[in-house]
Design a protein that fits this description.
Blueprint lengths: L1 H10 L2 H30 L2 H21 L1 H5 L5 H4 L3 E4 L1 H20 L2 H24 L3 E6 L4 E2 L4 E9 L6 E7 L9 E10 L10 E10 L14 E6 L4 E8 L5 E12 L6 E16 L6 H21 L3 E6 L11 H7 L3 E5 L6 E6 L9 H19 L4 E5 L9 H10 L18 E6 L14 E5 L5 E3 L4
Parallel strand pairs: 3-11, 14-15, 14-16, 16-17
Antiparallel strand pairs: 1-11, 2-4, 4-9, 5-8, 5-10, 6-7, 10-11, 12-13, 17-18
Helix pairs in contact: 2-3, 3-6, 6-7, 10-11
């Protein structure tokens, strides 16, 4: 029995009932004002007649605009439940004001021509609503998003709008992410009743378990993917139209888009109608890999130490081959070039052993500032992206990272990582043949000595870059 009562209360739409009774009360007052305006008219009181008639018409119009659309959305018929979201435009508000003014004048003067004008204007309003609703029917939206997105780098997304109607084209349709948030649903939740309420919670002497009827807690919402509208002026019947839009993301992280809308003001711009479209998409925005001043400062030192480390391990000639556009000039073999008449380069066995490992040693919250943390992540991402384009064999290491050698997996990790309390990754990292680029916030004296001969250290906290290689 208790569960049945709770379920009935959950289904009860208190807001709809409240608006229903407001509408009944407002229409009753309007009817009474109209009746009294007729009485005063018979008595010859023109001022009272005009005042009450105007009040009756305006109050009825307010009730019609505020309560009727809301109650219409609560109709259980499926076709009406798929109702549109709409907003009044400035043109629509001005039009309604003119209709009310002419309507008041028609009631006060009894001029039949004014009644005909009001009827025609109201008919145009109804026709506009029907035409705009029909314009948004049988439209299908497809969205193509890029697979890899970087912060602070614009990317293109393509939207395709298909008109499934074989008999009529579509005019003036906007694809917009601006939808009204879903209505919060109330439910019975456990709470605590405390007394007296005017004291602070810790000073109240009575505490009892209680049930509270309140909205369900909502999970934090991610930032949306789309922020602007894409306009389709014309979509032919039984055909499609496409448009590209530029997406910009100021920071790394996860983004989600729950729902899009097809909106139109066709034909008279009295209302802006929006039909929600089912759409759910999540993307991960990688850290920026722009070449900053800091990047240009660190890269030559890392490259030099890396080349020295590799050269020291092996410098055996492997073969002499033709020069390609990707080869460095310093590898040219001038003797073989002069003999053959074409550019030749030397290839060494060390090129098969160019192994580089980028290590991101995450920090606990509060160890470094947010700006320093983001700079360290951006630098690690930029180095990973740069060396991924070279001939080095890359690997990555970080707390909680699965150890994939795919640069996109490492960028996805950097996109979502946050400061967290954990053991340093350097304590579990094994020494290998790789040359290490380590981004860490640890003090230099705490770095394990077995990494000093084969690593380049980048310290987050002070952004001091120090080579630890002994070669």
């Amino acid at each position: 029995m208790v569960h049945w009562i709770k379920d009935a209360l959950r289904r009860l739409d208190s807001e709809a009932w409240k608006r229903f009774f407001i509408a009944v009360g407002g229409l009753s007052i309007s009817f009474a004002a109209a009746v009294f305006s007729t009485v005063f008219r018979e008595e010859g009181n023109f001022f009272a007649t005009a005042l009450l008639a105007s009040f009756a018409l305006i109050s009825a119009g307010v009730v019609g605009m505020v309560t009727v659309p809301y109650l219409a959305k609560r109709v259980t018929i499926r076709r009406f439940r798929e109702s549109f979201q709409y907003d009044f435009t400035r043109e629509g508000m001005a039009y309604i004001t003119i209709v009310l003014v002419i309507g008041v004048a028609a009631l006060n003067t009894g001029n039949n021509l004014l009644f005909i004008i009001v009827s025609a204007m109201l008919g145009a309003f109804v026709v506009s609503g029907i035409a705009s609703a029909g314009m948004l029917r049988n439209l299908q939206l497809d969205v193509a998003l890029p697979n890899h997105v970087f912060a602070k780098r614009p990317v293109q997304a393509r939207l395709e709008l298909r008109n499934l109607r074989p008999w009529a084209p579509a005019f003036s349709v906007n694809v917009t992410p601006k939808l009204k948030p879903p209505r919060l649903r109330n439910k019975w939740q456990r709470g605590v009743f405390s007394w007296p309420p005017w004291k602070r919670p810790e000073q109240r002497w009575l505490h009892l378990n209680d049930w509270v009827w309140k909205p369900e807690p909502q999970p934090p919402r991610l930032d949306g993917i789309f922020h602007g509208a894409v306009y389709f002026p014309y979509v032919p019947r039984a055909k499609s139209a496409s448009a590209d839009t530029e997406l910009n993301f100021a920071r790394r992280g996860a983004y989600a888009q729950e729902g899009l809308g097809l909106a139109t003001r066709f034909p008279f711009s009295f209302l802006s109608k929006t039909r929600p479209v089912a759409f759910s998409r999540n993307i991960t925005v990688y850290p920026p890999v722009e070449q900053t001043d800091e990047f240009f400062q660190v890269l030559p030192m890392i490259t030099g130490e890396f080349e020295t480390f590799v050269r020291g391990r092996s410098n055996n000639l492997y073969l002499i081959r033709d020069h390609t556009a990707e080869d460095s000039v310093r590898h040219l073999d001038w003797k073989a070039t002069a003999k053959t008449g074409s550019l030749k380069v030397r290839e060494f066995t060390r090129e098969d052993e160019r192994k580089l490992r980028i290590v991101f040693d995450n920090v606990a919250p509060g160890v470094v500032s947010e700006a320093e943390y983001e700079e360290a992540i951006a630098l690690a991402a930029s180095l990973a992206w740069y060396f991924a384009q070279s001939d080095a064999q890359l690997s990555f290491a970080a707390p909680g990272f699965l150890g994939s050698s795919d640069v996109y997996d490492f960028l996805a990790y950097l996109a979502l990582v946050q400061p967290a309390k954990a053991d340093s990754v350097l304590e579990k990292l094994e020494v290998s043949d790789d040359y290490n680029v380590i981004v860490t916030a640890q003090a230099r004296g705490t770095i394990p000595t077995n990494f000093w001969a084969c690593s380049y250290l980048i310290f987050m906290q002070r952004q001091v870059h120090t080579s630890a290689s002994s070669r």
